[in-house]
Amino acid sequence: MALIEFENVSKWFTEAGVTVHAVENFNLSINEGEFVCIVGASGCGKSTLLNMVAGFIKPSSGRILLEGEPITKIDPRCGMIFQNYALFPWKTVLGNVEFGLKMKKMPKKQRRELAREYIQMVGLTGFENHYPSELSGGMCQRVTIARALANDPKILLMDEPFAALDAMTRQVMQEELLRIVHDRNKTTLFITHSIDEALILADRIVIMSARPGRVKQDLVIDLPRPRHVSDQLTQDYLDYKNTIWESVQEEVMQNMLFAERKLA
Amino acid sequence: MSVDLETAKLTAEIPTTRAEIAAEPLEQKMRRQRNRVISIISVIVFVAVWEAVGRFGLVSPIFLPTPSMIYQEGVMLYEQGIIQADILASTRRVLIGFGISALLAIPLGLLMGTSDVLKAIFDPILSIIRPLPALSWIPLSMLWLGIGETQKYAIVFMGSFAPLLVYVIDAVRRVDPLIIKAAKNLGAGRLQVLKEVILPGALPHILSGLKVVLAVAWTCIISAEMVGASQGLGFRIWNAKSWNNTPQVLLGMVGISVTVLTIDVLFKTVEKRLIPWERSRR
Ligand SMILES: Nc1ncnc2c1ncn2[C@@H]1O[C@H](COP(=O)(O)OP(=O)(O)O)[C@@H](O)[C@H]1O
Ligand SMILES: [Mg+2]
Fold first, then answer.
1. CATH numbers and ranges of domains, chain A
2. B176 touching A, CB under 8 A?
3. CA distances from residue A61 to A24, A25, A40, A79 in whole angstroms, order as listed
4. I need a surface site. Which of A206, A221, B86, B150 has the fewest CB within 10 A?
5. Is the residue at B61 inside a domain?
6. For A114-131, how does the pLDDT look when each residue is reduced to its tens digit (9 = 90+)?
7. Taking CB atoms and an 8 Å cutoff, what residues of chain B touch A128?
8. Which atom of ligand 1 is the closest one to the Cα of A23?
9. Are B98 and B40 part of one and the same domain?
């Protein structure tokens, strides 16, 4: 049984009488332990998809199954990692990381201990008592990762989590994420618009069509791990990149034509 | 290699640690000291000019008594224990009336800010009460409660409750919805969201609201004391005016100013403790 199953999921928004079809008949299943990247042009419904998995919004039709049961509300089994961190500014690093455990009413001593473990895992030991406003973007993103993992979710949902970071930090974070995810054997659904990022991270890459978003292509990425920047020069890598690029480009073009037609 | 890069990154990544904030550059420190000296000189010059204006007969002391006359009046009232009793009476009235107001407005505001139904129930009432100046409650409160202490608390309460409630509701609405989503995603229930996210998230704005409304509370009490009281700074000023004792009028005004300033400073200390995470942003 798949961990997550999208069954004919559609989502449309109606605003001021205008209906936008963000996602249409989306079908995908994600198995336990997989690292799946979704790539697609901006505005094709990637965030909408992820927000439906987290339970923040409901599908207009179709359903999403988590461990065989449809998702009907915000579910802590789906740990969301936000691009803008969404840390609690009034809590220290430790307070943020232990939040989920506190909500579960875990005794203070036990949850502190566990939180420290996760803080160490993301390399922030020594910063336990700092507030988010005292940290850089990369460090904040580490805190959100630790916060989500400490809550032991079934699946990690990440919506372009590293897009706001500088190139150096991003690369470090990608490597760290892979190490952690493989360590803990976590299933991950990761959204990005960077093909290189997807190729470094993913077991599978799902390319979405232009809006309304559908699965255009579902590619198994059979590149050896661990993957390094130097691997980006291998023929296999370049082949994958070309395939994906052409596929995405078609959709971007279609998007632009659509916009032009609308303007005309 | 990745580990080295990592440590280098972490150390380079911290732009504003607490240590850095504490170690203020020397130049800035000197500028601050210089400004403080200027401020002190400014006060001295102001008082001296005022004194001179009276001494040289430019303005009659009946209209504007000199600082030394106010000082003498102050010493006299102090020795009789009058001014202390007035300050205490006014302060107590403000703090009790305002305290009750805050105790009710904060929970109610949290609920109204998070529940559309509760907001729909209370909003019409609030919008009728809100435009009323606190002073317009004085006649009614005197009819109901006489001129005792209860009436004073009631005036402060009536004057501060509605604006405070509006501040709290606004503060709640300003809490970042993304953070609320994050909390729910981590397993927080309704009550936990209220206690763990909305209350602390709204706290900075609630506190600045409290500060603004505290000044309103002072206006209320001074006016109420002028209309009907036998003690308090408002009464002292009004009483002195009836006796044409201008130095005492001014003394009462200085008393108000100093008391409000002192409470403001105390409030800021409490504020710093309640919202330590804002430390590095201010
Ligand atoms: N809450 C909403 N209300 C109305 N339209 C929305 C809403 N959320 C997303 N959309 C629209 O749905 C489409 C897909 O958005 P989104 O999922 O954010 O795309 P992506 O993340 O792939 O860039 C966009 O056209 C966007 O304008
Ligand atoms: Mg998006």
1. 35-59+71-77+156-263 (3.40.50.300), 88-152 (no CATH)
2. yes
3. 9, 9, 22, 23
4. B150
5. no
6. 999 999 988 899 999 999
7. none
8. 14
9. no
